[in-house]
Q: What sequence folds into this?
């Protein structure tokens, strides 16, 4: 994974946080529409946290606004490692599930930065990647802690007494 | 329409309306909406220069969710409406949104003739192989063996192959996208808009409610291993052997688009002259 400069690396990090923020905001809207307010609220919080991370990158780099994003994103998957897949949500999901999604995304982000830190990027980039990996590790710890405080869903949480699809 | 001030570039959010989509959580159509807005922003268009026309179905709700001009038309009739609009207003960028039921069944005949006419439109079909809005009936692209309460044992009918049909009918640009890759989908839509003539983008867009097994499409979708061709014969061979999950531009023709209306050969008075009383 070629990351030539610190600016390029941080622009990618910014794009990653922004994409995660937008996806969680979309999820919040989707669950709001389906009257699953508790999960919508959880996604709104996650979206807000990601927007703070994005802003912190802008401040750290002293960029006044959106930097020119690299034409090639630099990750192997279709979307950034911290972005939850569009189909990760369910209309009956519970707040714990939202945190489970967030945990998966934070772990992927941590691995992304660890891989860069262990790779052959310039020393400045590797140092920054190491710091970002540490931050993501802290996020993982926080999400795990959060999950312990949220009720775990019981078996059959997705059973709908009036399902949209009649069994075939 | 609350368009941003002139001379500023629009961001994807500027193409979204205040109306919140009512699709099921996890539906692929959310990604297609996002891809459309990203594509329009990348093309440096403005909402007031774009029209989004649709028919009926889950996917056809898209015009309401954009800040562009929109027309939520009659079932299967999005393409005739869009054709008329583009011919009358060639300055507008006209996108047409549809689904596999609306576009290939109810509007199947219009699909053939829109390809043949080659008017400069971009036709985006969100294909989930099912009628989602009406609770899960098989559509033209449903696999013959897909069994459900509404079609026990499956229909036993061969699927419709939209890309092959589009090529045979004269579409000038044929691509397949996957909603699980909204950025890639946006790039393909932008390329389709840029290409003159009738551009057809089939988007594999899973229905998580009636076809939850389509979540597995993420393991099947793959980039097309070949460069786009402008040779219809080569494209036909490719599309006939296609696995249905090749993502990318599969055909880029050079047929000139349907031109602007010529000046009438006779004036209205001259035409009326033989019928005078």
A:
């Amino acid at each position: 994974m070629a990351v030539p400069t610190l600016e390029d690396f941080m622009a990618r990090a910014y794009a990653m946080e922004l994409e995660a923020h937008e996806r969680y905001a979309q999820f919040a809207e989707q669950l709001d529409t389906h009257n699953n307010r508790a999960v919508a609220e959880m996604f709104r919080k996650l979206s807000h946290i990601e927007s703070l991370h994005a802003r912190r990158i802008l401040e750290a780099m002293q960029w006044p606004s959106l930097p020119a994003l690299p034409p090639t994103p630099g990750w192997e998957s279709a979307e950034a490692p911290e972005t939850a897949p569009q189909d990760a949500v369910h209309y009956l999901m519970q707040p714990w599930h939202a945190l489970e999604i967030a945990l998966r995304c934070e772990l992927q982000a941590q691995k992304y930065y660890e891989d860069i830190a262990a790779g052959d990027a310039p020393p400045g980039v590797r140092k920054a990647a190491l710091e970002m990996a540490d931050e993501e590790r802290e996020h993982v710890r926080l999400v795990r802690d959060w999950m312990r405080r949220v009720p775990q869903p019981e078996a059959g949480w997705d059973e709908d007494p009036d399902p949209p699809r009649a069994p075939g | 329409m609350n368009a941003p001030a002139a001379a500023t570039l629009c961001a994807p959010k500027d193409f979204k309306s205040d109306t919140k989509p009512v699709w099921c959580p996890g539906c692929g159509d959310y990604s297609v909406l996002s891809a459309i807005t990203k594509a329009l922003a990348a093309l440096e268009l403005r909402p007031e220069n774009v029209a989004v026309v649709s028919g009926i179905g889950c996917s056809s709700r898209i015009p309401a969710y954009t800040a562009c001009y929109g027309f939520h038309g009659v079932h299967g009739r999005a393409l005739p409406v869009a054709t008329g609009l583009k011919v009358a207003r060639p300055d507008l960028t006209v996108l047409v949104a549809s689904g596999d039921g609306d576009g290939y069944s109810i509007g199947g005949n219009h699909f053939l003739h829109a390809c043949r006419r080659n008017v400069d439109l971009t036709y985006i079909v969100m294909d989930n192989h099912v009628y989602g809005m009406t609770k899960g009936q098989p559509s033209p692209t449903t696999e013959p063996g897909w069994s459900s309460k509404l079609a026990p044992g499956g229909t036993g009918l061969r699927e419709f192959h939209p890309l092959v049909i589009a090529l045979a009918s004269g579409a000038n640009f044929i691509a397949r996208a996957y909603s699980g890759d909204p950025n890639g989908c946006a790039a393909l839509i932008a390329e389709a808009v840029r290409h003159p003539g009738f551009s057809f983008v089939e988007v594999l867009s899973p229905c998580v409610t009636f076809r939850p097994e389509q979540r597995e499409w993420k393991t099947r979708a793959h980039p097309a291993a070949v460069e786009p061709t402008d040779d219809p014969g080569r494209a036909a061979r490719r599309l006939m052997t296609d696995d249905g999950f090749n993502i990318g531009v599969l055909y880029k023709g050079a047929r000139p688009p349907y031109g602007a209306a010529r000046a009438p050969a006779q004036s209205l008075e001259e035409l009326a002259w033989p019928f005078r009383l």
User: Anything to note?
Assistant: Chain B has one domain: 16-275. Chain B touches chain A at residues 20-26, 28, 30-31, 34, 135-136, 147-150, 152, 178-184, 206, 208-210, 215, 218 (CB under 8 Å). Residues 76 and 108 of chain B are 7 Å apart (CA to CA).
